């Protein structure tokens, strides 16, 4: 069994989570569940980023202490993750002692290695992005990343020798073409590093809401330096070396494209400075947009996740997020697109296949799954297609293409629907043909395989489906070997339940 360590970004606690945050967690959770299916020992980490000027300003605005703001927001994040079945193994908060002590020690270590030095910073700062910019980097005097106001900073502080790592990074990207995904983003990062890296200011003097530099209480550690270290503090760095050795390096850091540079440039440089190995992959997904702009809390154009979960169900939302956009590209969040997918893919294609098959087993075999006998060519073709689909899904999941993996599974679902039309079980029943047994067994076996395959994407609905087809074991314990064709046991009884995805009426909305 090999370990597989997956992370999401640590989300800021200045506001409640929205669809964008849900997307990253759903993607990470789907991979975590898929790797478990493959037999890996998965460690899946998420959490919250609680320090910095942005949080301090929001707390002041709300007239509460930053810690109170964080404590309240964490509940919203945890509740949403629970309702979306996000199966994280650890939830780290940057205000926890286990993290703070690692950040302070890491800082001191880099001072003693000579990679952190004292200097004077003069430049501009964007609070929403928590980023430093030079005058020339600004666009029309605004933040080049989010186009918002920046403010001038001039202060004594500490710098990290980022400039030292440009060549090493370029060599690393070159030798590890899979490190930055997708490849379009890889070239962006390479061009950025080729332009030359500047040393990074890693302290703030007027900020009270941050981890203090040990022995210099007037200075707090820059929030990004603090937050990035969560990936090692949660893995036991400087605390449980055995565990850390087992878990590190991370196998995939999932991030949005907005924070790729932090993860593909600054983070590896910090690790190199500390003599630690680099993560295997940083995957930067695109943005969910609304009305042509990135959905964001500060822009106020976000979808309320609670409303969506309540109306469509958590698994349907997961399905839509995973199916609608290829992980590298941006996507437009639209209710009408979601409703179309719900009715077409979930209610019609999958829901009907399950419903029709179970109804026929009830009607023709009193609910007991028949045995297959002398399969004909048309029955054997379903088996061949099932084997092909499994291979294809595996290849696509290795590439982290969740959308195409779902499309492949749906090709098989529709293949099975077509098989019903071709085989015409109602005619075989009339003719008293023994082929009826084979057709229904083949359909039940196809449903068993589909349920296990969709489990990583839609865990609750997959479990419901698995139970309806009469299976008694735990779907979450299934492994790739359970996807071998032929394991459906004749003689078990189906349990017809409520429709998995009752059709929804279209919202009356303008879009
Ligand atoms: O950046 N579409 O936190 P954050 C897709 N604390 N994904 C989106 C999105 C959108 N419209 N909006 C947000 C931070 N995300 C730092 C991270 S990590 C050590 C520190 C997702 O609350 C996406 O994953 O601003 C993005 O990278 C992350 O939320 C940013 O969350």
Automatic annotation (TrEMBL):
InterPro entries: Anticodon_Met (IPR041872), M/V/L/I-tRNA-synth_anticd-bd (IPR013155), Met-tRNA_synth (IPR014758), Met-tRNA_synth_2 (IPR023457), Methionyl/Leucyl_tRNA_Synth (IPR015413), MetRS_core (IPR033911), Rossmann-like_a/b/a_fold (IPR014729), tRNAsynth_Ia_anticodon-bd (IPR009080). A motif ('KMSKS' region) lies at residues 294-298. Pfam families: Anticodon_1, tRNA-synt_1g. GO terms for cellular component: cytoplasm. One of its GO terms (molecular function) is methionine-tRNA ligase activity. Zn(2+) binds at residues 126, 129, 143, 146. It is found in: Cytoplasm. Belongs to the class-I aminoacyl-tRNA synthetase family. MetG type 2A subfamily. Monomer. This is Methionine--tRNA ligase.
